[in-house]
């Protein structure tokens, strides 16, 4: 237990530890359209990519609540960096693979740089493993990744196998894939979220894992369905960007004059708008982190998470995204002409935060699935 506690403490120290390196690399990353290699190395060496990696593989093995806190705090510093860190934290797959497979991925003795994508490719069974093919759009941090970890559905005669589909995570080496440079954007440019194409790549069976099978390590983090470890990170990153945008408006308002006389901070509509949106964001954060705490407590007790708890997570994420989007728009508007200029924090946070809030994990359609669960029905959505 002491290892887990020290891992959580080390993880929570990461944002402050890495702040200087992240901020000094921001312009370079934006120009490159990806995080520079020296920053990737600093993030990896500090442990930012090993939040969910088991301790025996050198990882921090943190709780979901701790991971979301780290993503949120990094999001306040730089949304692109926080996003790549979130997408790279697939170290829990060391507990999904058998010992032989995990030894291959973690062969160097240090944390491998991973990247993942949720859209499923297609796999067919062959002698010794699988042949995987597919296209995966918007794969953040893929140029730095040593291993790509996509989903794949095992096919039988061109169709998913009868019954419950065999959905697996595949570990594919960088040399087996093609990167198409499709990430031509203004917001979160530095994530380098390009398209990945794989054509009939052989993946040994030991480098795959069925997402519905229990993980082989019986400790709290690995008692959770991997979906629960992954899904909420994008919302935590986005909340960090929104929270920082509010702080930037608070810092700007006392010194900014308005065309209508007086300072921005003196305007009643500014005061009311600020307080209303900050209250909504704080409440949305509390809901998200309350759900994360309950998920962690369920894992600590060794119990299975219920579909109702999954529904709460999806509702908390969709709600935080809606509230966060409204708050970002409001802060950008209140900042007036200051919000327009590149190099200004409000402009950057608005641009990056809006991209983060576009992620499908927090789409309003998830409210429908949660509502169906509340009414005693199946959620009717994949990966719920």
Mind explaining what this structure looks like?
Strand 3 (147-156) and strand 4 (159-160) form a beta hairpin. This protein has three domains: 2-95, Orthogonal Bundle (Butyryl-Coa Dehydrogenase, subunit A, domain 1); 114-210, Butyryl-CoA Dehydrogenase, subunit A, domain 2, CATH 2.40.110; 231-374, Butyryl-CoA Dehydrogenase, subunit A, domain 3 (Up-down Bundle). With 384 residues, the protein is α+β, with helices and mostly antiparallel strands. The chain starts with a helix and ends in a 10-residue tail after the last helix. 47% of the residues lie in helices and 15% in strands. The mean pLDDT is 95. The longest helix has 33 residues, at 268-300. Strands 1, 2, 3, 4, 5, 6, 7, 8 and 9 form a nine-stranded mixed beta sheet that branches. Residues 235-360 form the Acyl-CoA dehydrogenase C-terminal domain. Keywords: Oxidoreductase. GO terms for molecular function: acyl-CoA dehydrogenase activity; flavin adenine dinucleotide binding. Residues 21-101 form the Acyl-CoA dehydrogenase/oxidase N-terminal domain. This is Acyl-CoA dehydrogenase.
Biggest sheet record: 9 strands, mixed
Low-confidence stretches: none
Radius of gyration: 21 Å
What is the tally of helical segments? 12
CATH class placement of the largest domain: Mainly Alpha
Structural class: alpha+beta
Write the layout of secondary structure elements.
Elements: H1 2-24, H2 26-32, H3 37-46, H4 64-77, H5 79-88, H6 99-105, E1 114-126, E2 129-139, E3 147-156, E4 159-160, E5 167-170, E6 172-173, E7 178-180, E8 194-204, E9 208-210, H7 226-230, H8 233-252, H9 268-300, H10 307-334, H11 345-356, H12 365-374
Parallel strand pairs: 1-3
Antiparallel strand pairs: 1-2, 2-8, 3-4, 3-5, 3-6, 5-9, 7-8
Helix pairs in contact: 1-3, 1-4, 4-5, 4-8, 5-8, 8-9, 8-10, 8-11, 9-10, 10-11, 10-12
Protein name: Acyl-CoA dehydrogenase
Organism: Amycolatopsis thailandensis
Domain Acyl-CoA dehydrogenase C-terminal: 235-360
């Amino acid at each position: 237990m002491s290892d887990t506690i020290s891992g959580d403490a080390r993880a929570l120290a990461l944002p402050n530890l890495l702040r200087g390196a992240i901020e000094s690399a921001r312009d370079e990353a934006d120009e490159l359209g990806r995080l520079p290699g020296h920053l990737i190395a600093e993030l990896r060496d500090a442990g930012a990519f090993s939040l969910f990696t088991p301790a025996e593989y050198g990882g921090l093995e943190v709780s979901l609540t701790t991971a979301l806190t780290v993503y949120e705090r990094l999001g306040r510093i730089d949304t692109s960096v926080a996003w790549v860190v979130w997408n790279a934290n697939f170290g829990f797959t060391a507990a999904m693979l058998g010992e032989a497979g995990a030894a291959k991925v973690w062969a160097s003795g240090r944390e491998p740089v991973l990247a993942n994508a949720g859209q499923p490719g297609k796999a067919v069974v062959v002698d010794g493993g699988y042949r995987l093919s597919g296209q995966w759009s918007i794969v953040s941090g893929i140029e730095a990744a040593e291993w790509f970890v996509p989903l794949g559905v095992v096919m039988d005669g061109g169709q998913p196998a009868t019954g419950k589909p065999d959905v697996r995570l595949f570990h594919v080496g960088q040399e087996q894939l093609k990167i198409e440079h499709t990430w031509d954007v203004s917001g979160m440019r530095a994530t380098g979220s390009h398209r990945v194409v794989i054509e009939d790549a052989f993946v040994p069976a030991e480098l795959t894992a069925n997402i519905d099978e229990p993980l082989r390590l019986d400790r709290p983090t690995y008692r959770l369905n991997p979906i629960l470890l992954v899904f909420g990170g994008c919302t935590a990153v986005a909340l960090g960007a929104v929270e920082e945008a509010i702080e930037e408006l608070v810092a700007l308002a006392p010194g900014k004059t308005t065309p209508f006389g007086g300072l921005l901070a003196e305007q009643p509509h500014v005061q009311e708008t600020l307080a209303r949106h900050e209250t909504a964001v704080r409440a949305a954060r509390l809901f998200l982190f309350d759900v994360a705490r309950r998920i962690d407590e369920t894992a600590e007790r060794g119990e299975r998470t219920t579909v109702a708890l999954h529904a709460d997570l999806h509702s908390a994420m969709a709600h935080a995204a809606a509230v966060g989007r409204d708050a970002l728009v409001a802060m950008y508007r209140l900042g007036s002409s200051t919000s327009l200029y590149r190099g200004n924090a409000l402009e950057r946070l608005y641009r990056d935060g809006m991209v983060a809030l576009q992620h499908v994990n927090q789409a309003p359609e998830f409210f429908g699935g949660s509502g169906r669960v509340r009414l005693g029905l199946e959620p009717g959505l994949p990966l719920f």
